[in-house]
Amino acid sequence: MNISSFPVLAGRNMAISLASLAPCGIILPHIHPRADKTIYMVEGSITTVGFIVENRGQFTVNNITVGEATIIPRAAIHFSQNPTCLPSVQLNFYNNEDPGLLTLGLNLFRLPSSVIQTAFGLDDDDDDDYVEVKSNIPGWPLYQ
Fold first, then answer.
1. CA–CA separation, 20 vs 143, rounded Å?
2. Whole-angstrom Cα distance, residue 89 to residue 22?
3. How far, in Å, CA of 64 to CA of 48, rounded?
4. pLDDT tens profile 36-75
C-alpha cells in the first residue's frame, strides 16, 4: 500500500507492502530511492535478505525467521530470497508514503547498449551475449 493505492497514508510518512515468496523465489535486486525499508517475516522458515549501501561498501546479508525483522537503508541495492521448499511471507514497512521502486536489471538495460557494454567490459564481439542477457531480464522484481 502506498499513497496511490491507500490515500489515508497521505501525510503519515509510511507505506506497507506484503510479499509472498514461492519456494526458491526471489525479489530481484532493486532500490527504494525515498525510503528505508523494514522487512518483518510473517510465515515460512527463513528468508535471506542482502544489501549494499554504496560503492565499495560492505555486502550485508541477514537470514531472518518468523517474528524477526531487518532494516534496509534508503537507496541501498537489496534483494530477498526464499532458499527453502516452503512458501514465505514478509511484511515490508517504509518510512515514506511513496518509497519508489527501481529494479536494477530491468532498468539497467534501458541505457544505451554502448554504455552497458563499456560498464561490463564487453566489446562488439559480445553483441549476441548482450542481446541474450537483455532478453532474459524479468519484467518485475518478484521472480518465482
1. 11
2. 9
3. 7
4. 999 999 999 999 999 999 999 999 999 999 999 999 999 9
> Rounded to whole angstroms, how far apart are CA atoms 83 and 21?
10
Contacts by 60-65, CB closer than 8 A, 24 or more apart: 64/39, 65/41
Angle, alpha carbons 60-61-66 (nearest 5°): 140
Query: Cell numbers 525479489 correspond to what residue?
Result: 27
More confident residue, 47 or 138: 47
Predicted confidence (pLDDT) per residue in 13-23, tens digit: 899 999 999 99
Rounded distance, CA 59 to CA 38, Å?
Answer: 17
Q: How many CB atoms lie within 10 A of CB 44?
A: 19
